[in-house]
Amino acid sequence: MSILKSFKKWVEKGVSFIEDVLAPEDFKIKKLLNNLPVGLMRDLLPKSPVYSKDIFVLFDYQNKIVRLIVKSIKYKNNASLRKRVAEYLYEELLDIASEIALFEGAPPLLVPMPMSKKEKRSRGFNQCEELVREIKKIGENNIEVSYNTLKKIRETERQTKLSREKRIKNVENSMAISDSAQSLTLSKETKIKNRVVIVLDDVYTTGASLAEARRALLASDAKRVIGLFIAH
Q1: What is the pLDDT of residues 31-70, one digit of tens each?
Q2: I need a surface site. Which of 58, 65, 173, 232 has the fewest CB within 10 A?
Q3: How far apart are the first and last CA of the chain?
Q4: 113-117: which pairs have CB atoms within 8 A and are 24 or more residues apart?
Q5: Which distant-in-sequence residues (6+ apart) come within 8 Å of 209 by Cβ?
Protein backbone atom coordinates (compact mmCIF):
# COMPACT_ATOMS: atom_id res chain seq x y z
CA MET A 1 0.00 0.00 0.00
CA SER A 2 1.40 3.43 -0.99
CA ILE A 3 2.12 6.16 1.58
CA LEU A 4 -0.70 8.29 0.09
CA LYS A 5 -3.23 5.45 0.40
CA SER A 6 -2.10 4.71 3.95
CA PHE A 7 -2.45 8.36 4.90
CA LYS A 8 -5.91 8.58 3.28
CA LYS A 9 -7.05 5.49 5.17
CA TRP A 10 -5.69 6.91 8.45
CA VAL A 11 -7.54 10.22 7.84
CA GLU A 12 -10.82 8.40 7.08
CA LYS A 13 -10.55 6.43 10.32
CA GLY A 14 -9.78 9.62 12.24
CA VAL A 15 -12.81 11.44 10.81
CA SER A 16 -15.05 8.47 11.59
CA PHE A 17 -13.75 8.36 15.17
CA ILE A 18 -14.35 12.10 15.69
CA GLU A 19 -17.89 11.82 14.30
CA ASP A 20 -18.66 8.98 16.71
CA VAL A 21 -17.34 10.96 19.64
CA LEU A 22 -19.26 14.12 18.80
CA ALA A 23 -22.51 12.37 17.85
CA PRO A 24 -22.43 8.65 18.70
CA GLU A 25 -24.43 6.58 16.23
CA ASP A 26 -26.17 4.62 18.96
CA PHE A 27 -27.52 7.88 20.36
CA LYS A 28 -28.72 8.98 16.91
CA ILE A 29 -30.46 5.65 16.37
CA LYS A 30 -32.08 5.70 19.80
CA LYS A 31 -33.40 9.19 19.13
CA LEU A 32 -34.68 8.09 15.74
CA LEU A 33 -36.54 5.09 17.17
CA ASN A 34 -38.01 7.06 20.08
CA ASN A 35 -39.29 9.92 17.96
CA LEU A 36 -40.64 8.07 14.94
CA PRO A 37 -43.38 5.41 15.19
CA VAL A 38 -42.93 2.34 12.99
CA GLY A 39 -45.27 3.36 10.18
CA LEU A 40 -44.26 7.02 10.18
CA MET A 41 -40.57 6.18 10.01
CA ARG A 42 -41.11 4.10 6.87
CA ASP A 43 -43.23 6.82 5.27
CA LEU A 44 -40.61 9.51 5.93
CA LEU A 45 -37.59 7.61 4.66
CA PRO A 46 -36.93 8.15 0.94
CA LYS A 47 -38.06 5.28 -1.28
CA SER A 48 -35.62 3.50 -3.56
CA PRO A 49 -35.62 4.50 -7.23
CA VAL A 50 -35.17 0.86 -8.26
CA TYR A 51 -38.06 -0.64 -10.24
CA SER A 52 -37.49 -4.17 -11.45
CA LYS A 53 -39.53 -7.34 -11.77
CA ASP A 54 -37.19 -9.40 -9.61
CA ILE A 55 -35.50 -6.76 -7.44
CA PHE A 56 -37.30 -5.11 -4.51
CA VAL A 57 -35.61 -2.35 -2.50
CA LEU A 58 -37.09 -0.39 0.40
CA PHE A 59 -35.05 2.81 0.69
CA ASP A 60 -32.64 5.16 -1.08
CA TYR A 61 -29.10 4.64 0.23
CA GLN A 62 -28.13 8.20 -0.71
CA ASN A 63 -30.05 9.42 2.32
CA LYS A 64 -27.85 9.88 5.42
CA ILE A 65 -30.38 8.34 7.80
CA VAL A 66 -30.78 5.27 5.57
CA ARG A 67 -27.00 4.83 5.48
CA LEU A 68 -26.91 5.12 9.27
CA ILE A 69 -29.63 2.48 9.61
CA VAL A 70 -27.83 0.05 7.32
CA LYS A 71 -24.49 0.62 9.06
CA SER A 72 -26.01 0.05 12.51
CA ILE A 73 -27.58 -3.24 11.43
CA LYS A 74 -24.62 -4.39 9.36
CA TYR A 75 -21.74 -3.59 11.68
CA LYS A 76 -23.23 -3.04 15.15
CA ASN A 77 -25.99 -5.65 15.07
CA ASN A 78 -28.44 -3.10 16.51
CA ALA A 79 -31.32 -5.34 17.68
CA SER A 80 -33.98 -2.62 18.04
CA LEU A 81 -33.35 -1.24 14.58
CA ARG A 82 -33.08 -4.71 13.06
CA LYS A 83 -36.51 -5.58 14.46
CA ARG A 84 -38.05 -2.43 12.99
CA VAL A 85 -36.51 -2.90 9.56
CA ALA A 86 -37.55 -6.58 9.64
CA GLU A 87 -41.16 -5.38 9.99
CA TYR A 88 -40.79 -3.31 6.82
CA LEU A 89 -39.21 -6.23 4.98
CA TYR A 90 -41.98 -8.52 6.19
CA GLU A 91 -44.65 -6.17 4.82
CA GLU A 92 -42.87 -6.19 1.46
CA LEU A 93 -42.53 -9.97 1.57
CA LEU A 94 -46.24 -10.46 2.13
CA ASP A 95 -46.99 -8.49 -1.03
CA ILE A 96 -44.40 -10.42 -3.02
CA ALA A 97 -45.48 -13.79 -1.62
CA SER A 98 -49.16 -13.24 -2.33
CA GLU A 99 -48.40 -12.43 -5.96
CA ILE A 100 -46.09 -15.43 -6.28
CA ALA A 101 -48.63 -17.79 -4.72
CA LEU A 102 -51.25 -16.51 -7.15
CA PHE A 103 -49.18 -16.89 -10.31
CA GLU A 104 -46.64 -19.57 -9.39
CA GLY A 105 -48.90 -21.82 -7.32
CA ALA A 106 -46.57 -22.14 -4.33
CA PRO A 107 -45.15 -19.76 -1.69
CA PRO A 108 -41.56 -18.53 -2.03
CA LEU A 109 -38.60 -19.57 0.10
CA LEU A 110 -36.68 -16.80 1.89
CA VAL A 111 -32.91 -17.20 2.29
CA PRO A 112 -30.20 -14.79 3.55
CA MET A 113 -27.27 -13.72 1.40
CA PRO A 114 -24.44 -15.92 2.72
CA MET A 115 -21.11 -15.01 4.28
CA SER A 116 -17.98 -17.10 4.21
CA LYS A 117 -16.99 -18.76 7.48
CA LYS A 118 -14.06 -16.36 7.77
CA GLU A 119 -16.27 -13.27 7.25
CA LYS A 120 -18.84 -14.46 9.77
CA ARG A 121 -16.17 -15.33 12.32
CA SER A 122 -14.58 -11.90 11.92
CA ARG A 123 -17.85 -9.95 12.29
CA GLY A 124 -19.47 -12.35 14.74
CA PHE A 125 -22.77 -12.54 12.86
CA ASN A 126 -24.35 -12.43 9.42
CA GLN A 127 -26.69 -9.42 9.42
CA CYS A 128 -28.80 -10.90 6.61
CA GLU A 129 -29.27 -14.11 8.55
CA GLU A 130 -30.25 -12.12 11.64
CA LEU A 131 -32.83 -10.19 9.62
CA VAL A 132 -34.32 -13.41 8.25
CA ARG A 133 -34.60 -14.78 11.80
CA GLU A 134 -36.37 -11.59 12.87
CA ILE A 135 -38.76 -11.82 9.91
CA LYS A 136 -39.53 -15.44 10.78
CA LYS A 137 -40.49 -14.37 14.32
CA ILE A 138 -42.94 -11.84 12.92
CA GLY A 139 -44.55 -14.11 10.33
CA GLU A 140 -44.00 -17.56 11.76
CA ASN A 141 -46.79 -19.19 9.76
CA ASN A 142 -46.64 -16.97 6.68
CA ILE A 143 -42.99 -17.06 5.64
CA GLU A 144 -40.92 -20.13 4.81
CA VAL A 145 -37.19 -19.69 5.42
CA SER A 146 -33.95 -21.61 5.13
CA TYR A 147 -30.68 -20.42 6.68
CA ASN A 148 -28.25 -22.80 5.01
CA THR A 149 -29.61 -23.37 1.49
CA LEU A 150 -27.19 -20.89 -0.05
CA LYS A 151 -23.59 -20.94 1.11
CA LYS A 152 -20.39 -19.12 0.26
CA ILE A 153 -17.62 -21.50 -0.76
CA ARG A 154 -14.83 -19.06 -1.57
CA GLU A 155 -13.34 -16.05 0.19
CA THR A 156 -13.81 -12.78 -1.70
CA GLU A 157 -12.61 -9.22 -1.35
CA ARG A 158 -14.97 -6.63 0.14
CA GLN A 159 -17.11 -5.27 -2.69
CA THR A 160 -17.33 -1.71 -1.34
CA LYS A 161 -14.54 -0.05 -3.31
CA LEU A 162 -14.46 -2.31 -6.38
CA SER A 163 -15.69 -1.32 -9.83
CA ARG A 164 -18.68 -3.11 -11.35
CA GLU A 165 -16.44 -5.32 -13.51
CA LYS A 166 -14.24 -6.23 -10.55
CA ARG A 167 -17.27 -6.91 -8.35
CA ILE A 168 -18.60 -9.44 -10.85
CA LYS A 169 -15.20 -11.13 -11.14
CA ASN A 170 -14.72 -11.03 -7.37
CA VAL A 171 -17.87 -13.05 -6.58
CA GLU A 172 -17.79 -15.31 -9.63
CA ASN A 173 -18.41 -18.95 -8.61
CA SER A 174 -18.20 -18.01 -4.93
CA MET A 175 -21.59 -19.50 -3.96
CA ALA A 176 -23.19 -22.91 -4.04
CA ILE A 177 -26.21 -24.78 -2.78
CA SER A 178 -25.68 -26.91 0.31
CA ASP A 179 -25.97 -30.65 -0.19
CA SER A 180 -28.79 -30.81 2.36
CA ALA A 181 -30.90 -28.34 0.36
CA GLN A 182 -30.90 -30.72 -2.61
CA SER A 183 -31.85 -33.79 -0.61
CA LEU A 184 -35.15 -35.34 -1.67
CA THR A 185 -35.78 -36.54 1.88
CA LEU A 186 -36.09 -33.05 3.35
CA SER A 187 -39.31 -31.14 3.93
CA LYS A 188 -40.67 -28.79 1.27
CA GLU A 189 -39.41 -25.77 3.22
CA THR A 190 -35.78 -26.58 2.54
CA LYS A 191 -35.98 -27.89 -1.02
CA ILE A 192 -35.49 -25.38 -3.83
CA LYS A 193 -36.28 -27.39 -6.96
CA ASN A 194 -39.02 -25.65 -8.96
CA ARG A 195 -39.47 -23.03 -6.24
CA VAL A 196 -39.25 -19.25 -6.23
CA VAL A 197 -36.42 -18.20 -3.90
CA ILE A 198 -36.12 -14.72 -2.37
CA VAL A 199 -32.56 -13.75 -1.39
CA LEU A 200 -32.36 -11.09 1.31
CA ASP A 201 -29.39 -8.71 1.41
CA ASP A 202 -28.76 -5.30 2.98
CA VAL A 203 -27.59 -3.09 0.07
CA TYR A 204 -28.11 -3.43 -3.67
CA THR A 205 -25.30 -1.73 -5.58
CA THR A 206 -24.32 -3.32 -8.89
CA GLY A 207 -26.23 -6.56 -8.40
CA ALA A 208 -23.08 -8.70 -8.63
CA SER A 209 -23.75 -10.69 -5.44
CA LEU A 210 -27.39 -11.26 -6.37
CA ALA A 211 -26.35 -12.39 -9.85
CA GLU A 212 -23.99 -14.96 -8.32
CA ALA A 213 -26.67 -16.15 -5.88
CA ARG A 214 -29.12 -16.43 -8.78
CA ARG A 215 -26.64 -18.46 -10.83
CA ALA A 216 -26.11 -20.95 -8.00
CA LEU A 217 -29.83 -21.29 -7.25
CA LEU A 218 -30.95 -21.64 -10.87
CA ALA A 219 -28.20 -24.20 -11.48
CA SER A 220 -29.88 -26.28 -8.77
CA ASP A 221 -33.28 -25.98 -10.47
CA ALA A 222 -34.83 -23.09 -8.57
CA LYS A 223 -37.67 -21.73 -10.70
CA ARG A 224 -37.03 -18.02 -10.16
CA VAL A 225 -34.80 -15.88 -7.93
CA ILE A 226 -35.84 -12.54 -6.45
CA GLY A 227 -33.65 -10.08 -4.55
CA LEU A 228 -34.97 -8.16 -1.51
CA PHE A 229 -32.87 -5.32 -0.09
CA ILE A 230 -33.01 -2.63 2.58
CA ALA A 231 -31.46 0.02 0.37
CA HIS A 232 -29.91 0.97 -2.97
Answers
A1: 777 888 888 889 989 999 888 889 999 999 999 889 999 9
A2: 173
A3: 30
A4: 113/150, 113/199, 113/200, 113/201, 113/202, 113/209, 113/210, 113/213, 114/150, 114/151, 114/152, 114/175, 114/213, 115/152, 116/152, 116/153, 116/154, 116/155, 116/156
A5: 113, 159, 167, 171, 201
**Domain locations in the chain as residue ranges:** 24-231
Residues belonging to the chain: 232
List Cβ neighbours of 205 (8 Å cut-off, separation of 6 or more). Answer: 159, 167, 232
Q: What is the pTM of this model?
A: 0.83
Top-level class of domain 24-231: alpha beta
Whether residue 193 is predicted with pLDDT greater than 70 in this model: the reply is yes
Q: Is 172 exposed, middle or buried (0-12, 13-18, 19+ CB in 10 A)?
A: middle
Decide which of 34 and 77 is more confident: 77
Distance CA 213, CA 147 (A): 14
Say which DSSP state 193 is in. T
